[in-house]
Each structure stands twice: as structure tokens, then as C-alpha cells.
Amino acid sequence: METMKSYSLETAVGLFVLAGLLCVGYLSVKLGKMELFGADGYVVKARFIDVTGLKEGASVELAGVRVGRVEAIGLSPDKRAILDLRLSKGVKLTDDAIVSIKTNGLIGDKYVKITPGGAGEPVPPGGMLTETESSVDLQDLIGKYVFGGVKEEKK
Amino acid sequence: MKTLSGILDIPASVGRMALGLAWELGSLFLFVCRGALLAFSLPLQWAKTVQQVFFIGVKSVSVILLIGLFTGMVLGLQGYYTLVKFGAEGLLGVAVALSIIRELGPVLTAIMITGRAGSSMAAELGIMRISEQIDALDAMGVSPVRYLFSPRLAASLICFPLLTAMFDVIGIMGGYLTGVLMLGVSPGIYMARIYDGVVMQDVTSGFVKSAVFAVLVASICCYQGYYAHRREGGFGARGVSLATTTAVVASCVSILAADYALTSFLL
Question: Is the pTM here over 0.80, yes or no?
């Protein structure tokens, strides 16, 4: 009887810990995008003048399909933004691909859009993409429109 | 002369309170340090810790799941009616998930466990103190802090993060229930926004919070019970009842205060 009782107590604790760890795993791997078995895919770098509003973990899309995410955002010695983009293995890019930062809707999150090139050399893992388009600052545009900056440029 | 002493009474009582508070905090800190150090002394108290995990963790699962579900559901409801004004009901998922993972999960879980397990820790240790069982342990050469407090501290450190994780998951499901099934947000958008919007830092900050709350709750509740005989308000049964009340109130206040401090550090 005594062993039976401690057995059921240990079973209950074991089930509780397993269920809890399952939830922890779901939260950190699925929601937090933690990489358990090392990251798969490969990294290419991209050089930007301005990446305002972009966050680490933002998705990278090619033709509207999610092919990777922004792994790190850093600064180069000449004060340009350097993005590390982790792309899935099957996606091969050429060095004339254009990388741009777009906004999801009017006030949505920023993401990275890759427009594939045609005739360039394949980019090796760790390679640098230099044809980039910085994020569009909506406030800047509105400011120019309201205060006539756009008109002056036309003249 | 009489008025002068009347005036001097005010700073004297303030000083007495300040000294009392400092003394109390210092004694609590020493109690926690002793408990934490003794938790690692050999032989490890596996059986007692498992028993405490059962009491603190397993028995709290049902109530945590219940309040997690309702918290998620009410967040889904409230969030929907606010977001729909801006045509942004697609953000409902990430609003629910972030508020639960970062704030409500750790805090509500800790407050709930304080009410369920913390109060009984204080009462149990308080009764052991006034019935002189703690003195008996001491007399037998068993360290009462190691025997009573260390397993509870270790078990709390195991249980709080696990229960918080359960709360988070069931809360997100509760938001899904109201948002998607009742109010008609697209299920794909709800989950996709969560996957896009939640980052690892949100999840880890939630777990750091719950670990800190675990130490706070276990130590405050055990401390109040362990030293129930030192209270000025009363001895015996009255001392235990005061200790239990103080334990719950002080735990809840310190959870909310620590939550603010931790949020400002972790953000």
C-alpha cells in the first residue's frame, strides 16, 4: 500500500513535469524560434543604408513566400547596417538579387523582401548582397508632401 | 517639556519602524541564503522535494488551467472590441500572446500559487513552530531550515516556470476560443501573427520573472510561518493566523512590485 501510494505520487509529479516541459518547449521553440539542433539553412549578409524599424526575427520573403528570417542586425565599420539573413537550404540566390525592406500594410511590421536577379553569380554562404533598397520612412514622405518638399523637387 | 517629548515621539516611531523593517528584511535575507545553501547539502532531499512539487505544482494545475483559460478568453474579448475600431483585429493573436507571456502569465500564476500553496506553507510551518515541532527538530540535530524550507524553495523553483508555461499556452488557446471561434478572426492570421510577433526574449523574460516570483513567494511564506512565534500581535493560534495573512499580502505586494522592477530591467 505504501509503495503504491508513493508510486502514484511520483507518477503525478512526472506527468506534471512532462506536461510543463511540453508547454515550455512549445513556447520557446515554436513561439520563441529557439534552435534546438543548431540552425539549418545558411546565412547571407546584406548591406543597407537604413533599416529603421526592422527587428531581429523578421521574416524574409521571396515572391511572397517566407524563405528565412533576419538573424542579426549589426553595423559595419563604415556605418552601414549589415543584416544577417538566414535562408533555408533550397533557396539559391544570385549576387544581382535586390534586397528591400517593406512594410506589412500601412502600420504593420517591417520585413525583408528579396527580388531574385537573373544573370549574376551564385551567392555562397556568408556572401554579401549589395543591391539593397532601404526602408521607406512614411513620416518623411508625408512631411515632404505636406510641407511642399515634393513640389520643390519638381521645379 | 511635555510638548517637546510629544514632538519627539514622531521621529522616534518613524525610526522604530525603519529599524524594524531593516531588521526584518535582513533576517529574511539570511533565512533565504541559509535555505538556498542547505538545499545543496548532501544527501539531497529528493523525496521531500518531489512531495512538495506534488503539493505546489500538481495540485495547482487545475486552477491554473482554469484561470489561464478565462484570462485568455477575456483578453480576446476585450482586445477584439478595441482592435476592431482600427480595423486591426488581425493583431488580436499577438496582443493576447504578448500580454500573457510577458505579464499576466507569470504574475497571475504566482498570485494564484500564493493563495493556494503559499498560505498553507505559512500555516503549516507556523503550527509546527507553535507546537514546538521545529524546536524538536533542532533538538534532534536536524536543521529545520534545511528540512522544511529548502525542499519548498526547490519545488517552487521547479513549479512556478512550469505552471507559467501551462498558463501561457492555455491562455493563448482561450484567446483563440473567443477571437476565432466566437468573433470570427481568421484562425490562420491569429496564429501567424503570434509566430511573427513573439520573440525568444519575450519568452525568457516571462520565465525569469516566474523564477524570481518563486523565490519571493516560497521565502516570504516560509519565513512568516517559521518565525510565527516572534510576532508581536499574538502568540499561538492568533500568531499563526497573523503570519498566514501577512505571508499572503506581503507575497502579492512583492510580486507586483518585483514585476515592475523586472519589466524595466528586462525590456
Answer: no
Task: Tell me how close the Cα of B234 comes to any Cα of chain A, in angstroms.
Answer: 37
Interface residue B267 vs chain A (CB under 8 A): no
Cβ pair B166, B64 in contact under 8 A? yes
d(Cα A37, Cα A50) in Å, to the nearest integer? 33
Least confident range from B9-13, B122-126, B205-209, B260-264: namely: B9-13
Cβ-count burial of A9 within 10 angstroms (0-12 exposed, 13-18 middle, 19+ buried)? middle
- Which regions of chain A does DSSP assign to beta strands (E)? 42-48, 59-62, 65-75, 81-87, 98-103, 110-115, 128-129, 132-133
| Count of beta carbons in the 10 Å neighbourhood of residue A81 | 20
DSSP assignment of B48-69 equals: HHHHHHHHHTGGGHHHHHHHHH
Q: Which residues in B lie closer than 8 A to residue A24 (C-beta atoms)? A: 161-162, 165, 207
pLDDT in tens, B151-195: 999 999 999 999 999 999 999 999 999 988 888 888 888 888 888
ipTM of the complex: 0.76
- For residue A14, which residues of chain B lie inside 8 Å, CB to CB? none
